[in-house]
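[Q] Does anyone have a clean structure-token version of this?
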Amino acid sequence: MIEYSNGNIHDIDHFIKVWAYAKNIAELENIDSEIQYVLEIAAITHDIACSLCREKYGNTNGKYQEIEEEYLVREFLTEFNLSSKQIEKVAFLVAHHHSFNNIQGIDYQILIEADYIVNAEESNYSRENIKNFSKKFFKTNTGIMLLKSIYNI
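[A] Here you go.
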């Protein structure tokens, strides 16, 4: 993904931070190792469409990413030794990581939480926004603890 990011330091930093939070939340929540493996791949590739969206739409709006990501991540992952089931799950997680209304599965939950923790800092979200999002969408004990500790809410 570093090479795929074409030297965009922001994108590289972002997916590495999301991966690190996702990995740590998963480990502290003691999730199944296969689920964690797929989650970590999804965390690394979750914004795979950002470069394309900047070029095609002029921004990286989540709706545009969701249009483009599923195909891109499937194509990207064919280079790696993943099962079709693993690729399907990663593609689903990546293509839906901006949709918060029907979060199903611990992997999906953790990806949402890890991405939000990083986005809150990068986009300078208000304390009120962080509190509201936390109450509405954070479910893991570790994600809640991290969000409260990092943002002092």
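[Q] Thanks! Anything notable?
[A] The CA atoms of residues 47 and 81 lie 21 Å apart.
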